[in-house]
Design a protein that fits this description.
two-stranded parallel ribbon, 11 helices, 18% strand, Rossmann fold, 13 strands
Amino acid sequence: MRFLIVGCGYLGERVARAWLKDGHSVAAMTRSDETARRFEATGIVSIVGDITRPQSVANLPECDCVLHAVGFDRNAGPSFRNVYVDGLQNVLNVMRHRTQRFIAISSTSVYGQQNGEWIDEDSPAEPTRENGAIVLEAEQIIRDAFAAQKMNGTAHVLRLAGIYGPGRLLRRIDEVQKGTTISADPDGFLNLIHVDDAVQVVQAVANHPQPSKTYLVCDDRPVLRREYYNTLAQLFDAPMPKFDTSDLSNSKRGGRNKRCRNQRMKDDLGIELKYPDIKSGLAQALPPTIS
């Protein structure tokens, strides 16, 4: 199969390597010439461009499946809306005519629940924060693009919980080792997914004959923030973390205390998680010099 990855970063590059290993053709778009050269050395066909500029995406190649996994870089210049709405629209204007399947990485930020409720794909998506509202708008743009008559392709949205894995814990590790007071609710729930498991979900959606339109992608067990940081501290033989709860207004917490359920993902796609919770996942994600 021919795959195109738009936004080949922490998740996308791992997906690219998995597809290459399976013998597929993979092209990827990146804003960096240096990254493009690194991709080429590994067998990825590189396209240098910026999705916020329509001329950059005009010649994206036809393919069997697109993975749109663009993240937001605060230092790049364009706003969150420029990237998630305008840039996405630029890609869709071209690729909805050039692919049979469009897989988009979204976020659980589209859910505004904040009282520890269990949620799934059928729960109301009513974000309380601006970025969550923009992400939800982007999802609808994708669905509208592929709902037009005479379009043979299909679109699938993956609402990912917080991704962690090797190289993604350095700031949290530093906080624990320094004994930094954490400004957060220790009794709020975190929903996580190990990057290796996120990769296998993307692969499963790409291969499935008729995947659902939306999947909530998370591990088996939401954890309290207290447990997450205590587990990190135990792994480093560091003092138990301290939390500052003096400024936990609802406006800052909005959508950050919910429990995500992954049943549809497991039932539809036959996913067996490598790291079903942080007990197994955090130890694997530590830097080699620590683990």
